[in-house]
Amino acid sequence: MNTQLKCKKAEIQDLHKIIELLADDELGRKRERLEDPLPESYIKAFNAIQGDPNNELILAVLAEEIVGVLQITFTPYLTYQGGWRATIEGVRTNKFLRGKGIGTQMIEWAIHLAKERGAHVVQLTTDKQRPEALEFYKRLGFRASHEGLKLHLG
Amino acid sequence: MNTQLKCKKAEIQDLHKIIELLADDELGRKRERLEDPLPESYIKAFNAIQGDPNNELILAVLAEEIVGVLQITFTPYLTYQGGWRATIEGVRTNKFLRGKGIGTQMIEWAIHLAKERGAHVVQLTTDKQRPEALEFYKRLGFRASHEGLKLHLG
């Protein structure tokens, strides 16, 4: 058994396990629908992500098990002299494996990908209801310099 | 003279005026390079934005003058049952025309585009050094539910 943590890009056969991770979360359980088969909307979104060269789903794999997921998006902007940014979203790790460095390794991989793509900044927002996540990102060198605002559409 | 404010999508001939707006800003003046001709990096970024169906540059035009700019990005995510999000970035208005509803009209147009694209949320981050911007977005219905974190890459 391979007990070394690895990162890999997601494939369609990983989708059910990814939605399990997203649903097995304090905020996620109210938002997601973990059914078999999965609601079509997840498959459509997965295909849209995979078909876009500016979006990647990154998985953490331990002993052949998917134990973490995040999405990274690369966006060209005019600001910062036409700089690209990398945005991280939807970070989740298996809740029984917290504190084992899985999140850290995924974020480090995301930072590596962002550098490869020439992004000048890696950015993310974290819900104020997750104070432990805020501390986690600060330890990794992120600065909470911005307010993150949302407007939910009806 | 047409003194009614209009929104339109940016074209390459608008680029110099857009960079003028981005540079004529407390934070922007340290970051941008307003030169004639413009640094190549702006033109490359403009072309990358225009070539991506998930990115739009929106301008506010008053009496044939460009008086505001923002960028909107549409991103597919697995979270929220595979929901799309609209992200607003790089919002600037002519500083001599503050309080005239230009920003409001641009954000309303962005919300309209987000609804057309079926996004479930419109999101943005605003620098904590711009408290007046935070109040502006709150008045438009945005909730500051998240922390916005940045990691600048060397």
Automatic annotation (TrEMBL), chains A, B:
<dbReference type="InterPro" id="IPR000182">
    <property type="entry name" value="GNAT_dom"/>
</dbReference>
<dbReference type="Pfam" id="PF00583">
    <property type="entry name" value="Acetyltransf_1"/>
</dbReference>
<keyword id="KW-0808">Transferase</keyword>
<feature type="domain" description="N-acetyltransferase">
    <location>
        <begin position="5"/>
        <end position="154"/>
    </location>
</feature>
<dbReference type="InterPro" id="IPR016181">
    <property type="entry name" value="Acyl_CoA_acyltransferase"/>
</dbReference>
<keyword id="KW-0012">Acyltransferase</keyword>
<dbReference type="InterPro" id="IPR050832">
    <property type="entry name" value="Bact_Acetyltransf"/>
</dbReference>
<protein>
    <submittedName>
        <fullName>GNAT family N-acetyltransferase</fullName>
    </submittedName>
</protein>
